[in-house]
Write a structure and sequence with these properties.
Blueprint lengths: L6 E8 L7 E8 H5 L7 H5 L22
Antiparallel strand pairs: 1-2
Length: 68
């Protein structure tokens, strides 16, 4: 049985052209997270306008947001 009161850490990152960069954190319990239905089109509701372009990282690691 899962502990419904167990806390899950969440990272919040916002960045992009015309967006003020912002990083913070928080937490939510597992019961609240399990109650959110999965939306396969979540990117369409989350990103305003055109989808973001892939990030170019100095290390050369691929941006997994664009790996399907």
């Amino acid at each position: 049985m899962h502990d419904v009161h167990a806390m899950v850490p969440l990272a919040h990152l916002s960045f992009g052209d015309g967006v003020t960069a912002w990083l913070s954190g928080g937490a939510s319990n597992t019961a609240a997270l399990r109650g959110i239905p999965y939306d396969p089109d979540w990117r369409k509701g989350f990103n305003v306008g055109a989808p973001p372009k892939p990030m170019v990282l100095p290390s050369g690691v691929k941006d997994v947001e664009h790996v399907f």
